[in-house]
From TrEMBL:
<dbReference type="InterPro" id="IPR050707">
    <property type="entry name" value="HTH_MetabolicPath_Reg"/>
</dbReference>
<dbReference type="InterPro" id="IPR036388">
    <property type="entry name" value="WH-like_DNA-bd_sf"/>
</dbReference>
<dbReference type="Pfam" id="PF01614">
    <property type="entry name" value="IclR_C"/>
</dbReference>
<feature type="domain" description="HTH iclR-type">
    <location>
        <begin position="5"/>
        <end position="67"/>
    </location>
</feature>
<dbReference type="InterPro" id="IPR036390">
    <property type="entry name" value="WH_DNA-bd_sf"/>
</dbReference>
<dbReference type="InterPro" id="IPR014757">
    <property type="entry name" value="Tscrpt_reg_IclR_C"/>
</dbReference>
<keyword id="KW-0804">Transcription</keyword>
<keyword id="KW-0805">Transcription regulation</keyword>
<keyword id="KW-0238">DNA-binding</keyword>
<protein>
    <submittedName>
        <fullName>IclR family transcriptional regulator</fullName>
    </submittedName>
</protein>
<dbReference type="InterPro" id="IPR005471">
    <property type="entry name" value="Tscrpt_reg_IclR_N"/>
</dbReference>
<feature type="domain" description="IclR-ED">
    <location>
        <begin position="68"/>
        <end position="248"/>
    </location>
</feature>
<dbReference type="Pfam" id="PF09339">
    <property type="entry name" value="HTH_IclR"/>
</dbReference>
<dbReference type="InterPro" id="IPR029016">
    <property type="entry name" value="GAF-like_dom_sf"/>
</dbReference>
Length: 250
């Protein structure tokens, strides 16, 4: 039987101590209570602070549990943070691909668009920021739904004749997304449109959203109606770049 992970045990101990200290504790206090060196404790609380579980007081001398720790069932990443880290990369993707680009995250079973870049031409387009998309019928949605099965819609509404409405088929589709690392959609949400998306991973590898592009089938797919490999590579590289930025210190 495998043993326990010491670093997780220590982090859990720090969280328990902070939960019992409403006024917060300093690194020395935590170290004394756990019999650990200050450098070790500092590394633990710094990581817990980075993932949003603890906060520092105004003096910076004491740590206490953050409000986010009490809301573990919610997304830990502020949508403004996701958008700010994604803007430059999403804009670049739209410029290189010539297509609409969206960044989204799961909220109450829907995909909320937190950033939208217009297709770089002179056509009339509506801003989608703040709107929601069905996760089972869009590449953007599948890219996040594949890693959060608890958010799977109870009812799979049909938007076109190609929309996946069978739970077994959707499970198979999401397994494919996980195995290859990217998602596609072909006339499942809107007739004559196709899309490609890839998950964005935050701290610890947790999927916090997705970035994708969408456009007319003849531009997104090749002559055999397969999603173009060059666009898939662009989308995946963009997701990786956003993820790197999210993992960096503010």
């Amino acid at each position: 039987m495998p043993g326990t992970v010491q670093s997780i045990e220590r982090a859990a101990a720090v969280l328990r101590l902070l939960a019992a200290a409403p006024d917060g504790l300093g690194v020395a206090d935590l170290g004394n209570a756990l019999g650990l060196a200050k450098t070790t404790v500092h590394g633990i609380v710094r990581t817990l602070h980075q993932v949003g579980f603890v906060e520092q007081d105004h003096s910076g001398a004491h740590y206490h549990l953050s409000d986010a720790f009490g809301r573990l069932g919610e997304s830990y990443l502020d949508p403004n943070e996701l958008r700010s880290r994604a803007i430059n990369w999403a804009d670049s993707l739209a410029s290189r691909s010539g297509e609409v680009v969206r960044v989204g995250r799961l909220v109450e079973g829907k995909v909320e668009v937190v950033h939208h870049v217009f297709r770089p031409d002179d056509s009339d387009q509506d801003l989608d920021v703040g709107t929601t998309l069905p996760p089972h019928a869009t590449a953007l949605g599948k890219a996040v739904l594949a890693y959060d099965t608890s958010a799977r819609p109870r009812s799979l509404e049909a938007y076109t004749t190609r929309t996946i409405t069978d739970p077994v088929q959707l499970s198979e589709e999401l397994a494919t997304v996980r195995s290859r690392g990217w998602a596609t959609e072909f006339e499942e949400h809107t007739v004559e449109l196709a899309s490609i998306a890839a998950p964005i991973r935050g701290l610890g590898g947790l999927v916090v959203g997705a970035v994708g592009l969408a456009g007319r089938i003849e531009r997104i797919c090749d002559s055999r109606l397969r999603h173009r490999g060059d666009l898939v590579s662009m989308v995946r590289a963009t997701a990786d770049a956003i993820a790197r930025d999210l993992r960096e210190d503010p």
